[in-house]
Amino acid sequence: MQVQIFISPAGGQAGGRQTREYVLRKRRLTIGRASFQDLQLLDPKVAPRHAVIRPHAGRLRIESCGRERIRVNGRWRTVASLSEGDTVQIGATTITVRRARRNAAVQLEVSEPSASDEADLPALHSLSLRETRLSAHLWSWLLVLGVIAVFLAPALFAALNVPARPILRSNTWVPSDRLWESGPLHPSHQSIGGNCNACHAAPFRHVGDTQCTACHKNVQHHVDVRTADVALFAQHRCGDCHVEHQQPSRLIQRDSRLCTDCHSHLRQLKSNTDLLDVGDFGAHHPDFRPTLLERSGSSTPPQWHTVRPPPGVRAEEHSNLSFSHAEHLKPKGIKAPNGYEVLQCQDCHRPNTSGRQMLPISMEAHCSRCHSLQFDEHDPATAVAHGDVTRVFETLQAHFIRTYLNSPTPPDQRASPGARRPGGEREVMTRDEQRRARDWADQQSLLIARELLEKRVCVECHRITRVPGATGFAQWQVEPVRITQDWMPLAQFSHASHTTTACTTCHTKAAASKASADVLMPVIGVCRQCHGGSADTTKLASDCGMCHTFHLPGRGLFETGIQAKRHP
To answer: H/E element holding 562?
Structure first.
């Protein structure tokens, strides 16, 4: 077979000055990118051995040498017969058959891409939908019907046919509404099992609050349900903060914007609120305002209520207790029964079993080792009770009555002719002896009580007042003491998470405090040394949920608030 090849740039004409002519005598003509091919095409899209042209049954035939396809007259083929006028496209090169007669030279015109056509090379290798003989409309409708059959029809069938739900959901090979799950249930909700309708009561609708409160009946609201503030939450639902079927599985959405969307402009929602606006913790959070205990009136037993000082007012605790941190934290130590002893914060402030909060301080556990309640240093049994003034007086009276009775000679009758002597006691004291014994015991008890309450022991820590017009033991009143245990009841803090930090790092003024009225809670600037806003990458990112919760105690059941929103 004699092959006459005319090679010209794309758009050129055979016979022009730019046309190159080759005459080959071959049984077959090989085409490819390799250098040993008869017709070498320098195109990276062309295989090293791409195609071959040879005579077959009196005609020319082009065949692919592998899986590469060839475009003949605009159609993709692997084998095709060639006639005069046919065009073959391999990569970016077009081959046109000019003469293909038997016993005559075969003429092929090869049109190579020019430099200006290089930008169009990717388009030459694309396959259009029309070239596949497929209809876009047909496959679009088939895809839509397939989605409906696989995803929508089972979910709709399960929503309408209640008995069929467990059958569909238990079979993993049958499409069901489980295909709509975006992720697994949180571990706290896995007890629901496969009962999707426990939460999804209506198809294609968000889970309502009533489905949540059906199980969570004791959850408290964010505001008092007896007030009109419940209307502020009319457009919100549980699912705004509690997100299910997420990966990774987390039940509480911790985005601070869920809180700051309201708390950054509270007065626009409620003009008479005394709460301050709050934004990002790192820059737009007001300073802490601790909640203190104050006594209400002078009732007995005393009544206490919580107060919070206004912004800018120094907080003071009026606990009726006298205590100096500076005195007890002296570097050289404090005088103790066994000499000077250096005290540390943890000697008195000890965490509870959870480590999050501190245990209350008591006289018996923390103070009695140094502050003795004995009124007779030679007799350990003469210690009075702490915290109960009535028992103090009873202890004093009992002690001096025993002293009177156990004395061979009554203290008030040392020279009396009728004094009792050992072995001569009468079994029953006379009424006059009983009166004298009580009078003497009362006098001695009042003397010791005055010393304990006004001069030493009790007065060192407590506030003692005299009751006008009162006599006897009723003339002294020890003011009741109650120390604040929860300084920020609407926030949560864990000492266990801060054990690597020294106490005075946060409570900076403790070592210099001389009055129990000082509130030694750290200011927000101390916390910001380590904690930043939710987007702060240089510090510990702290969102609202780290210290605050939405459901607050004493606000009323959340379900009640739902009813109020529905029936204003």
So the answer is: helix 558-566
